[in-house]
Amino acid sequence: MFKREYFLKRPFDLILGSLGLFFSLPLWMIFIFEIWLEDFGPVFFLQERVGKDGKLFMNKKFRSMMVDAEKFTGPIQACENDARVTKIGRWLRRTAMDELPQLLNIIKGEMSFVGPRPLRPMEIEVGTGKNDSISDIRFFDARSCVKPGLTGVAQVFAARTITREYKFRYDLWYIDHQSFTLDVWLILLSVWISFSRKWDTVNKGFQKPL
């Protein structure tokens, strides 16, 4: 039986999200200018994602790929050294700075700082070519009992190349063991990965928790 979200999770998200938004505003100005300057395209990228209990919401990011990146490929996961990624986008993805606008999703209550990765309803999986609805993947209902997160066990520990179903096992481990201490530890690890610029690599250098 999986645990419900602990009672401090929402206040923690709201306080940390608000502080993060306030102190990161100077970075927002820099990134907005750099993204626009590279190709004069839109700065933000909005995409439908699946949240808690399967509810859809609009996920917010800084645009890190060329405009109309999926025009010829359809909805497909990004891979390491993806040719669709812009110059500034490559740096943003390696440091996870492209996800700063998700602080707004956290403040609104659509996401949490820590939880399963917010997935698209349909997405071609790298390496398998599958384009199944994520609701049809085993363990989906169980992982949907909590809000998706900016970071999480799967994001930190799982290699990018493993299947979504196997990544779901990491999410289920988190749901069963979630606590304030675990969330703080995962956030600190995520900060370290950001400074190391390893978010867009296959293996981030940590041992699997499973």
Sequence-ordered SSE layout with sheet pairings:
Blueprint lengths: L8 H31 L4 E7 L5 E7 L24 H9 L6 H7 L3 E3 L25 H4 L5 E3 L1 H5 L6 H14 L2 H17 L14
Parallel strand pairs: 3-4
Antiparallel strand pairs: 1-2
Helix pairs in contact: 1-3
> Could you report the average pLDDT, rounded to the nearest whole number?
86
> What is the makeup of the main sheet?
2 strands, antiparallel
**Which spans of ≥5 residues are poorly predicted at pLDDT below 50?**
none
Helix/strand-derived category reads mainly alpha
Rough outline: globular
* Number of spatially distinct domains: 1
Distance between the termini: 18 Å
Order of helices and strands: HEEHHEHEHHH
Strand percentage = 5-15%
Number of helices: 7
Question: Characteristics of this structure?
Answer:
mainly alpha; two-stranded antiparallel sheet; two-stranded parallel sheet; 41% helix
Written description of the protein model:
By secondary structure, the chain is mainly alpha-helical. The protein has one domain (9-196). Helix content is 41%, strand content 10%. It is built from 7 helices and 4 strands. It has helices at 9-39, 87-95, 102-108, 140-143, 153-157, 164-177, 180-196; strands at 44-50, 56-62, 112-114, 149-151. Strands 1-2 form a two-stranded antiparallel ribbon. Strand 3, helix 4 and strand 4 (149-151) form a beta-alpha-beta unit. Helix 1 packs antiparallel against helix 3 (102-108). It is globular.
